[in-house]
Please model this.
Amino acid sequence: MASFRLKSFVSALALIGFGGAASSQEINLYTLREPGLVKPLVEAFTAKTGVKVNTIFMNDGLAERVEAEGARSPADVLMTADIAKLVEITEKGVSQPVKSAVLEAAVPAQLRDAEGRWFALSLRGRLIYVSKDRVKETAMTYEDLADPKWKGKICIRSGQHPYNIALISAYIAHHGEAAAETWLKGVKANLGRKATGGDREGARDILGDLCDVAVGNSYYIGLMRSGAGGPDQKKWGDAINVIMPSFTNGATHVNASGAAVAKNAPNRDNAVKFMEFLVSDDGQKILTQENFEYPVKTGAPINPIIAALGPLKPDTISISDIAKNRKAASLLVDKIGFDN
Model:
């Protein structure tokens, strides 16, 4: 039944002009990103180039849909919001290599596929939130989260959440699987409550004195402190200091949004043009201003709230190498009962 619905969907797209025939003035975008972020991007691109962007928004299953559509897929550009989904695009073979001097100049090597099958577009640092009132530390490493001094003091979301799986995967890349297991057990021993909720709830629970330390993405600071999440969340954001952590032998772990040109893109040239726009100063400004993310391009504009957190120095280990540890990271979370 699911296969029939997908085939009907593809046929319907063809009937309305969103099918596989190439057009010199359009592209078809499949995206997992929020409409509020994507719409300003596509409007600015169309205004600059005259190329129309037909957008399909999805909650999940992007790579699976393109894989199922096969050679008849109308998709030109695939856009997603985290490391796991980016690498899944290449694992399922639904993107194609792109050689672009513009993309390669803007996106550092560790933040793109070695064969050009995807490119990061914006970054979220995995940071440490601490109580303004109860924590004096102004610098910490990820390794410090397992220090017994924080026993009963740490709040974090589920270990199986993609953001934490990526962090654990990075820890494995730096220290090996055995050391990662020891570290994860130490973090679990320091939890002040069950690993649950979201990153912003970590800030909330610091304000509520349930914990002193939490782990959260950088862009949530912007959402809270700007008031975009409402007055309560602004109080959460104002109650914390933010530490830019690093690995002891590395830099700050980042998650990345990114995009790829679909394997059977009917409008390939315009797809590459859209990708290049996304890493231009104009594209980067929209990505960073609308969603409080760090730009992937050095020197591109940064939202003032995020700029105030300090410069982000992304880990130099390639995202692709980190992502290879996803399965091992997930198994470790279950093995030690991190979420129990």
